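pasting for ref
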Amino acid sequence: MRKTKPSSLNEKTLLNRLLKNYALILVVVILFGMFSIGINTLWQSMGRGQITVQEAVDMISRSINDKNMQGKTMLNNLTDNQEKINSLNRYMDLPISNYLNYSYDQQLASGNYLFLPGQVRNFYTMYDNIESIAIVLNNYDGYYLSTLSNKGGIKKSGSPQLNNKFYLAYPITNQVTLEVLGSFYVEFSKKDMLDSLANLTSFGGLSAYVFSNTAYQLLVYSESPKQNDLQLIQQEMKKNSQLPIQTLKEKNQLEYLQTTSGFDILVTISKEKIFKHVFWDLRILIVGGIVLILLLLYLLYRTFTKYSHQVDIIMDSMARVSQGDLNTRIDEKTTQFELRELSKGINTMLDNSEQYIADIYKLEIKQQDAHMRALQSQISPHFLYNTLEYIRMYALSEGSEELADVVYAFSTLLRNNTDQAKTTTLAKELNFCEKYVYLYQMRYPDRVAYHFEIDDVLKDLTLPKFAIQPLIENYFVHGIDFSRNDNAISVKAQLIDEQVEIMIRDNGKGISTQKLALIRTKLSNTQIELHDSIGLQNVNERLRAFFGPTFLMNINPNEGKGVSITLSFKKEQKNEL
């Protein structure tokens, strides 16, 4: 026995094409889902990044505004009247001991104790975010400097060192003449802003830049320093006092604000950092998706391979059957589900085919035997015909013409029945039917009448033998009432517009509505059925097979009694039974 060859995924079979299509669909669906989730996550992350930079700008702006208000409040406390401005000038002009005496004298004269170191020291108490305070007067060399370590402050020569410090500068003006007398500098702590920026996002890559209205860099914050961006910003600010917004937007989520007090605030988040953060967040999804794809492909491959192997078993068995091995059967234990049912059906079909072949073989043997017997008994019909002819001639010689006619009619019927021809003419068929009715008329004298009429153009019309006789016989078996004396049957064959119409009409018992409906249903079935009946359905099927789709048999009850059967078909036909 030839072994089953398992299918390969490279073979061009429908099953393997389905496997590849299903696998492709699964992979595409999973990848599309992963891609959709990734795009949605990236889109949300970019949105969160934009919200973060906006929040950072707002936070820095609020912080600067608060510090600016604090600075203005401190400056106002020091310079809101001429007496306080005079106190600043005396501090810068006199030694500290002389300034102290000046302050005492002023207190005695006006009741206000204006002592600059004491006033500045109070500022540190009022505000906990001050790092240092510097005062510069235009008419004096040097400046006043107060720090956390020396809150009272001292006079120093030169100019204040403000590099890398977050300070706010305010002009000192004469409230009466509006003359600018100098500058007031307050250095604030960056810690609150830096802490707030550090807690704003989990992306990484957040950077913040603050510049004064004089393009001085007040604040630089970066979670992951990008020297290129910082250098670009510093160069542009030095060159034209403007931030390179458009250039930075190419690689960053960006928010820019210029406050009413002239500060430039710029916050960026690196898009690269956002992408990396999203990718890191999706790593489990990506790995899980790849594992799921591989697992599904493996399971799909195993399932289809097993299924394909079962199909191969069936195909192998069918190949052996096609090669003539009719004893081949499919092992139903090796198949499952619908393939098992298919295997059972094929095995049953093979069993039936084998039995059918055996029956046909036996039938052919019997048919050959029947032919032999027919040849051997061929003399018997001739002997019977000769005997009937002798009886007919004897009846004539004795003057019994009626008996001679009966014998002749019977002999004609016998010859027609033993004739092996499959077709006849319409004239011969009706002649045969007439003799059949004549015998009944002789059997039941004065009770049966008949009338046969045929157009001359239809006499030579070829049709199957016994096409009309069974319909007439049907009347004598089921429709005639022998208790009556007016039983009648007629057959009329005519040609109407190239359409042959043969009507068999009687005045018998008729037929019930239910039975008529059942007969019409069977006659309307276009499929030819094989059975042993010689009744209406048999005639219908034989004539339909002979004349083709143009043939139609109609059965209708008469207005009085009996039934009318109409056979109609096109005159042109060449079929042979």
